[in-house]
Amino acid sequence: MKIKVxxxxxxxxxxxxxxxxxxxIDGGIGxxxxxxxxxIEAENADNIVVVGEKRELAESIxxxxxxxxxxxxxxxxxxxxxxxxHVGLGSKTQLSLAIATAINRISGSDFSVRxxxxxxxxxxxxxIGVAAxxxxxxxxxxGHTFGPGKQKERFSPSSASLAPPAPLIMRQDxxxxxxFVIGIPNVDKGAHGAREVEIFEKFCPVPLREVEKLSHLxxxxxxxxxxxxxxxxxxxxxxxxQKIGFKKVEVALQDPVIKKxxxxxxxxxxxxSGVSSFGPAVYxxxxxxxxxxxxxxxxxxxLKKHTGxxxxxxxxxxxxxxxxEANLLLASN
Length: 333
What we know:
About 40% of the residues lie in helices and about 25% in strands. It is an alpha+beta fold. It has two domains: about 1-170, Ribosomal Protein S5, domain 2 (2-Layer Sandwich); about 180-315, Alpha-Beta Plaits.
């Protein structure tokens, strides 16, 4: 049997509560993208064999997953495409889940996606990536209990946390004519590893007033606008988030060109703009593919005049990952 897995990517709009005064931290909102994707093909083998993109990372993930899912077995994995690393699109979570899912299916095991997340040690802070893989769409997760003996005892990113995936509060389809233009300036990669841990330790807890302000914005502006398909109000709320709470910290740590690009997209007609996760990916929200392609060309010109970089357009994935026998997936495409 050959299994083919195609994952979405995601934009992480913001973490909600990095104060913890109510005994809970993290929580977040984000959206699932149709592109870019992790695409892998896997089949039984005597040993663990990985070929293609990000071979060393993929092999490390495969060994960890096999030890927990099907000890002593082998697998051959061909990594056909991956998501750019450390730019804010959720690359490692999607690659990890793709590999673990393929091993799970081929070995005949029956682990849930949430159990696989624990096996590959992802989603210890944000639950957006795992929910994007599971079901797609717009996602709101509820974070983790906080304090001595709780799920998390300190403020930390997913890479440094063993907390379980955050429970899902809300998952909602996004209109098919809403498109995101994503520009990735050629600047330093987003914070990760020890640097990311250091940022959480330095800037947390976030002032309670900031968390309250952000929660009010999400509950009474972002979510109602999504339910009413009001792209103008929804986009405006995303732009407002860039000045509140931990997202304000993430934006302040960026190269100056990031804010310039956000404001450029707004000036060129985007309904909202912001930084995904720790960046440097900057998104602009528009309605309709023609408008998206126009903003993409304008963003490309902006990047060429400043740092260089890449730009692409993506609609929202409202379904999550595709997992099929390889011949069936190829036929469906």
